[in-house]
Amino acid sequence: MRVGIILNAVSRKKRKFYSSILPALQAHHQTTVFETKFAGHARDLAATQGSNCDVLLAAGGDGTLHQVLNGIMTLPNRPVLGVIPIGSGNDFAGASEIRADAKYLLELLQNPPHSTDIGKIYCHDNRGNAIEEYFMNVCSAGMGPTTVAEMANMPSWLGAQGRYLAAIVKTFFSHQPEELELVSEQFSWKGSARVVAIANGKSFGNKIYVAPQANLDDGLFNLFVGGDVPLAKFLWYLQHLKNKQKVNARQVHYSVASDLVLSSAKPAQLEADGELIGWLPATIRMHNNAINMLR
Q1: Domains and CATH numbers, the chain
Q2: Could you tell me the pLDDT band of residue 160, with boundaries at 50, 70 and 90?
Q3: Would you say the pTM of this structure is higher than 0.85?
Q4: Closest among 262, 249, 224, 246 to 121, alpha carbons compared
Q5: Measuring CA to CA, how many Å separate 36 from each of 44, 179, 257?
Q6: Whole-number Å distance between alpha carbons of 89 and 47
Q7: Are strands 130-135 and 178-184 parallel, antiparallel or unpaired?
């Protein structure tokens, strides 16, 4: 089997990958590693090298998986997609119980892939240019994109985990609820919100389970709306979400949808899989069983 691996070169678990994971894969499969050299390079590598692989593994976090997904979606003949979770944020892999373990990955490669849903976002950049982007895990408005933007401004010496923690703390105390509107055939909501999440996977933002019941092959997004909740109460609700518990509160809403429109009264950004995508309004559509994936 031809196995390609796109490795996030700045991963702090890179040494573990080369010392224990890669040798095991090379002993059983024709394996080639492509290291990223700049931001966004994983997407380019997937688009240019994916056709030469039977399986293409994203070795990194949710952002690396996001880029590899978008790269292979440009190909007429797509390889099976997989992930080696060695990034700073591994929400998709963690919720799917995918491990960065050589023995586990070898067993996974022996199993047939699963047809898997993905989402697609249609929005625009700050100049009004159209953007089309696929996502694997979760996209969100509100605190999500604010945290991603803050993280990009944090000093690199903090490391990925430190930058994320610093960004989330700053966001919690500075972000103001945003006026958002979500419309689908199944559910409509309009109001002031701290976060609106459209989930294909189960969790985002470092194990915040906004969709603990989500399935990757049911053709539906799980929707989460965290309204204008007082900050102290919102922090309390987050503990419930971390424990995979649904929040029963008047300002918190759950639903499902296959297609929806998310808009805002004021300029507002959208993130997906921990990457800033563009600006609202956005149309978000489910692509049922769009890829084959090891999981």
Answers
A1: 2-111 (3.40.50.10330), 119-289 (2.60.200.40)
A2: low
A3: yes
A4: 262
A5: 9, 38, 35
A6: 23
A7: unpaired
